[in-house]
Structure formats: C-alpha cells, structure tokens
C-alpha cells in the first residue's frame, strides 16, 4: 500500500489541448523511470468525464502517483522534477495543479 500520493490534475478549459495518447505512451513511462528510484511505486490515470450532476469537469485528466513514503515526493521532485515537468508542453498547453497527500485508509 502506498503511504503517500501526488495527485496531478490537468485543467480543462475552452482552449486546453491534452494529448492523452502521448501522455500514456511516453510521459507516464518517463515519470516512472525518473521517480521510481526515488520511491514511486506506481500510478493511476483517470480521464475525467464530468460531475455527478452532469456538469463538465474543471479537469480533463487526473493522475495519482503512489510513493512508499511522504518524504520521498519532494525529494523526487527536487531531483527529477525539471525533467518531468519539462515534458508537459509535449502533451498539454496547460500546467497541472498538484496536491500532495498521505494515505490514511484503503480497502
């Protein structure tokens, strides 16, 4: 079970452009390659389709990066963040919103 996560949300606006195929086939394997040695154990990518009330989501894609320990996330970002973040223009014209968290329950 991961002890910590980084949730990455990509904004969905009238002028946003997100290349999901590139994200899945190139960016995420690169993220795993660079962050794996720093404690990242896996990830989940979700294409967001809307809200329960049927409204359009403010975000198009959510990615949850899983880490063994919370203190590994800032270390991974310090060591490899420039490389990982530098790839964003290859698949998105919007910068993501990122939240860090500790896992407190799972089933």
From TrEMBL:
Gene3D superfamilies referenced in this protein's UniProt entry, alphabetically: 3.30.70.100
Superkingdom in the source lineage: Eukaryota
GO MF assignments: oxidoreductase activity
Family: Belongs to the tpcK family.
Listed NCBIfam families: EthD family reductase
PANTHER family per UniProt: BLR8190 PROTEIN (PTHR40260:SF2)
Entry protein name: EthD domain-containing protein
């Amino acid at each position: 079970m991961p002890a910590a996560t980084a949730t990455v949300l990509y904004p969905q606006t009238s002028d946003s452009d997100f290349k999901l195929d590139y994200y899945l086939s190139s960016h995420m394997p690169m993220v795993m390659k660079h962050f794996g040695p720093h404690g990242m154990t896996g990830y989940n990518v979700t294409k967001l389709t809307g809200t329960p009330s049927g409204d359009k989501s403010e975000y198009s894609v959510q990615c949850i990066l899983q880490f063994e320990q919370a203190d590994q996330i800032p270390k991974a970002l310090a060591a490899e963040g420039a490389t990982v973040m530098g790839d964003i223009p290859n698949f998105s014209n919007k910068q993501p919103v990122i939240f860090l968290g500790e896992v407190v329950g799972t089933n």
